[in-house]
Amino acid sequence: MLQKDGKDGSKSVEVRAYFAGKYFSGACSCRGLVCRYSTLILLSGYPSSGKTHRSQQLIEVFHRKISQSSEPRVKRLKIHHVNDDSLGLTREVYASARTEKDARATLSSAIKRILTRDNIVVADAMNYIKGFRYQLYCEAKAVQTTNCVVHVGTPAHKCRELNDLALKDSTGGYAPEVFENLVFRYEEPNGMSRWDAPLFTIPFEDAELPYDAIWEALIGSDGKAKVVRPNAATVLKPAAEQGYLYELDKTTSDVISLITNWQQDHAGEDGGELQVPDTELIISLPMNSPSLPQLQRLRRQFIGLNRQHSLSKARIRDLFVDYLNDAFQS
């Protein structure tokens, strides 16, 4: 796309593909079975930034790639477009914390339900909370699914203009106070965070997305399927060890107590590191020290991910500390 200065705007697409060892391209390990897989594409951006338009562009090109492919594994793929409209959610759900939380739960449930074999899920929503993106990243890893984040980088002032126009034309839009609140709370994706990687940032001026780069990151064009290495904490296995749930609850509770006791002893300090007794494990607290409700929420998320897993008792503490450090770094 030529801009007013005559430069090629398509070159300004910022493509951040930080794989960080998450994917490797190689022969699928199906070993004689039919190779099947799924992928998750998270769109993120300010309200009224054009996420649905970008989703439709991506879906159109991916449909064409699928129909033109000669690979059986690609021909089987189906694309699912999930957004507020498809789930029957109105803009009013963002007017209160309770209804917004319910809306996120509805979106998460829909994504998990569709994220099965041979499906490409395009999650066309703001996805503006990094904790929510991390949650969906964990869900994708649990089912060994490739994923990426497409950041629709329309600036706030342009989104405000588009939102005002939509309200004027009665074609959608958010109430002004809701719009400003969502913009204020938006947490921009960071390609250095593994749950936001690979990250593709699309400037408003660019007419097209980097379709080939996104396809290559998720599907692959070399005849070999992208394979995901699941985290140790997300590989589902039957919980067979006696007393596992008790140990899961007790061990995570002990770690949270360790953090809160340290915070009480170091009141007023910004961030810090504490060592887990009798281990070499280090918990690195962020500058904005997490509150007890935040810590308990992370604990519940970890327990939910591992309730049906078969982790050894000795590994629970190590993995939970890693989980917390990952969350704090976000």
How many domain modules?
A: 2
Approximate helicity band = 40-55%
CATH superfamily of the largest domain: P-loop containing nucleotide triphosphate hydrolases
Top-tier CATH class of the largest domain: Alpha Beta
Question: In sequence order, what are the helices and strands, one letter per element?
Answer: EEEHHEHEHEHHEHEHEEHH
Main sheet specs: 6 strands, mixed
CATH topology label of the largest domain: Rossmann fold
State the secondary-structure class: alpha/beta
- List the total number of helices: 10
Mean pLDDT: 82
- Per DSSP E runs of 2 or more residues, the count of β-strands stands at 10
Q: Label the CATH architecture of the largest domain.
A: 3-Layer(aba) Sandwich
C-alpha Rg, in Å?
21 Å
| Unreliable residue runs | 1-36, 233-240
The separation of the N and C termini measures 34 Å
Strand content: 5-15%
**What order do the strands of the largest sheet run in, or round the barrel if closed?**
1-7-6-3-5-4
Protein name: Chromatin associated protein KTI12
Pfam families: KTI12 (PF08433)
InterPro entries: KTI12/PSTK, P-loop_NTPase
GO molecular function, one term: ATP binding
